[in-house]
Amino acid sequence: MEILQAVILGIIQGATEFLPISSSGHLIILPKIFGWSDQGLAFDVALHFGTLMAILLYFYEDWKEIFSNSYFIKQVGKIFIDRKREFFDAKKMKGDLLVIIAIATIPGAIVGVLLEKYAENYFRSNMLLIGFTFLAGAMLLFFAEKIGKKNLEEKEITLKNAIYIGLFQMFAIIPGMSRSGTTISGGLIFGLSRINAARFSFLLATPIILGAVIKESPAFLHSGMSIDLMIGVLSAFISGYLAIKYMLQYLENKSYNIFVIYRLMMALAIFLMFAGK
């Protein structure tokens, strides 16, 4: 792989992982347009490692607070460290953001495991399917923007809503749907403000991306730490961090409609380029 190709793919991965426009869809389509060979799932996972580092750095203080304030973690500590018999209070568990994120992660993780082979083969090769998912994702985000009350904060997310948002994340297994796009849409539909829908989506990305990186690490390590791969990871890290920062600033007084328009344009471009092929 050429250095320039690795840089471009890294930048695209970092930016589109957090914007609701599908990183996987872009990483499949761009090589087709430029005539590059498919970089493979191992390289995609390496780029995800870069975005994982970006999200951990940006939300470091948030994650530190989530763990330090977690009722579940405190109770487990009392049981295994203090050797005390402690019972879990269901009401306190419902307000634990760490538990809420864990619950919301489960549906997407299950579907990811069950449909892994389709994700690696059929989903990555069907361009028209990706075009339809870009279109479907645009309609979902537009619908969420229209009906969402947009008045809730992260601390007001219930376990029930977390499960629903997690169900939206299941569709992200299909390239073009976008993990951030589906979870942001779910957050908006269930009342989160634009910024809090994005923030919760980014926090929810952490365990999913971490799981994917760990699962595919043998392939990643087997491929070797080449210069182009390391540059791709660095590019994904930098662009991912900037995408998080500036998207949250953008959402302070703007809607998601610009991403709806972009997705519609991408869907049209894909249909025009790959129809009949």
Write the layout of secondary structure elements.
Blueprint: H1 3-18, H2 23-34, H3 40-58, H4 60-68, H5 71-80, H6 90-94, H7 97-114, H8 116-120, H9 122-125, H10 127-147, H11 159-169, H12 179-189, H13 194-215, H14 217-223, H15 227-250, H16 257-274
Helix pairs in contact: 1-2, 1-3, 1-15, 3-13, 3-14, 3-15, 7-11, 7-13, 10-12, 10-16, 11-12, 12-13
Alpha-beta classification? mainly alpha
Total DSSP helices: 16
SSE order, one letter for each helix or strand: HHHHHHHHHHHHHHHH
Q: What is the general shape?
A: globular
Total domain count: 1
Descriptive report:
This protein has 277 residues and is an all-alpha fold. It has one domain (3-79, 92-274). It is 77% helix and 0% strand. Helix 1 (3-18) packs antiparallel against helix 2, helix 3 (40-58) crosses helix 14 and helix 12 runs antiparallel to helix 13 (194-215). It starts with a helix and ends with a helix.
In short:
By secondary structure, the protein is an all-alpha fold. The protein has helices at 3-18, 23-34, 40-58, 60-68, 71-80, 90-94, 97-114, 116-120, 122-125, 127-147, 159-169, 179-189, 194-215, 217-223, 227-250, 257-274. It is 77% helix and 0% strand.
Any descriptors?
mainly alpha, 16 helices, 277 residues, 0% strand, 77% helix
